[in-house]
Amino acid sequence: MQNCGQVVLKLEGGLGNQLFQFAAGYFLAAKLGGNLTIDQYSVPLTTVHGESEYGFEALNLDSLRREIQIDVSEKLPSNLAIKLAQWKPSIKRFLLKIRMTTSNFSGLPLFIEKDELSSKENFLGICNSIKLHGNFQTWDIVERAAQLGFPRVFELKFIPAWIKTFDVDFENSVVLHLRLGDDTKSNANFKQPSIEYYWAATKILKSKKKAQKVYVLSDDLQRARVFLGIDFPYDVKYLNMPHDSTPLERMYFMSLFSGIVCANSTFCGWAAWSISNSGGEVIVPVPYSDGPVLGSRDFPSKWIKLDKYSGAEAV
């Protein structure tokens, strides 16, 4: 027998993707007045960043509605299964297909998001217990979730010691995020912004925030130095975060700045969400997607959107 308003959420991918999925699952559970069960089994099978489990356990979620019970299933694939899935995509597909059935504890109907705009409207129309599969990378759903208690500004349960070692005047500083790791080279759906985008965005941000300092955060600082080059017209400081820091810690650190120039990255987008809701400025690249996969879209209206190739302001 189904519980009234029961939502089971398949979680997958890196932290940025996970937070979109969490927001969607929470929104639906709050809307239906039910509970949310999060199945994290697929995370280590689908991430390209090395996560072994869900990544937001250390996030302060006191703003969520207390009447909504949120449970995270502890079941994860074995190390052997993960290695086999990385070795052969067909094995990964097989494991994910099996999990689709075995994780549906109550035999709920499935909602599988498709890469089309109608998927959001279909999702918003759900009015019964459901098992969710999809990325749900739409800021409209996040905003709806925030109206029901989903965090607008991210805080950690505990601030890691390494963050306190950085002597940064966050209130008078802005940050550029560059995503240049190996995984970006083969991802034709989400090409990264050009140097022209970063030039134009930094100029706008310094003008708006009167920022005294500009910092750079990247998944590959050596490549970031080469990318910006010696001709970049602004003095920047490269920050090297500890290798053993978690993705959530790094995202939180990035969210402390008063302004941000985003890469083509859901990870950066969540830092931007927190910055914007704290009164800061956000610049994002468009188009976000270069292929049939929609990815993150419908950015909040107050975010500044620049063409990621020319740096021109987008309509």
SSE order and pairing:
Blueprint: E1 7-10, H1 15-32, E2 36-39, H2 43-46, E3 70-73, H3 79-87, H4 89-102, E4 110-112, H5 118-124, E5 130-133, H6 139-146, H7 161-164, E6 173-178, H8 182-185, H9 195-209, E7 213-218, H10 221-228, E8 236-238, H11 247-254, E9 259-261, H12 266-276, E10 281-286, E11 304-307
Parallel strand pairs: 1-2, 1-5, 2-3, 4-5, 6-7, 6-9, 7-8, 9-10, 10-11
Helix pairs in contact: 1-6, 1-12, 3-4, 11-12
Instruction: Identify the CATH class of the largest domain.
Output: Alpha Beta
The structural domain count equals 2
Helix/strand class:
alpha/beta
Instruction: Please summarize the sheet with the most strands.
Output: 6 strands, parallel
Please give the share of residues in helix: 25-40%
What Rg, in angstroms, do the CA atoms define?
20 Å
State the low-pLDDT regions, or none.
none
> Percent of residues in beta strands?
5-15%
Coarse shape: globular
- Gap from first CA to last CA: 50 Å
